[in-house]
Design brief:
about 280 residues; alpha/beta; Helicase, Ruva Protein, domain 3; Rossmann fold; 2 domains; 7-stranded mixed sheet; two-stranded antiparallel sheet; 11 helices; 9 strands; about 20% strand; elongated; binds S-adenosylmethionine
Amino acid sequence: MPADNLASLLATATARLKAAGSDTPTLDARLLLQAATALTREDLILGPDLRLTPEQQSVFEGLLARREHHEPVSRILGSREFYGRDFKVTSATLDPRPDTETIIDAALKVMPQGARLLDLGTGTGAIAITLLAERPDASGMATDLSPEALAVAGENATRLGVADRLTLREGNWFAPVTGTFDIILSNPPYIPAGDIAGLDPDVRNFDPALALSGGSDGLDPYRVIASGADARLGEGGHVLVEIGAGQAGDVEAIFAARGFSASGLHRDLGGHTRCLGFNRAEK
Ligand SMILES: C[S@@+](CC[C@H](N)C(=O)[O-])C[C@H]1O[C@@H](n2cnc3c(N)ncnc32)[C@H](O)[C@@H]1O
């Protein structure tokens, strides 16, 4: 029996991924088919009657099965686009989310010329590397508790051409940090520990636990960041943190108790408050 053509393979794969619970089955099926075949999107559009070789069909089947088991496409492909650039993603790193682009837009508005930035809990390096790539005059430091994540951030920094302006340090929040900065940023783990078991399997089974759990109420990292920020913030500096749903009031109170006043609230494309800005409060 001849192999199915591309159009019917894609239709079957899309139906399978939809049945497995993917929110984006058509896109997922296309990206996995492209990965299995090295065909471009245009090839798929212009050649619906093309047929895969048996080897390509077997690779595609393997990728589909992984997605049916809830592995995100970015993890299967080992790469995720963030702010228009491709970042390597591994099992040691959070898969950078489009919502985190909110903190990038907020930072670009307040970074002074020649800004020094500090990114706490950098993961793939998505925040620090994007800002350094957007602003060739800036330099900075990024930390993570995970040496494996830091190694990925290092690879991304080199590939995206900012490694000479980024210092990577391993350690617990501010512990490995030296110097002062114009802007301190973090997208810390902020899920209450008890909520992790109820997350989507795409997240629960594939994002590292270290990147998700913010302690019993999800706010522990904000307490540490708020308590250490003053010592590392230069004159007129800014703090920007990503937050989870419903955390704005609590996070503002945590920073207020450490002498910071809110300087901005930034919404993601879904309209949710995603990022808060702080400055030192007037004395
Ligand atoms: C939510 S992820 C964010 C990753 C990346 N900044 C992003 O936005 O995609 C949180 C990161 O904080 C790191 N992390 C967790 N606990 C930490 C700690 N005590 N000190 C430093 N980094 C920590 C995790 O390894 C993870 O890379």
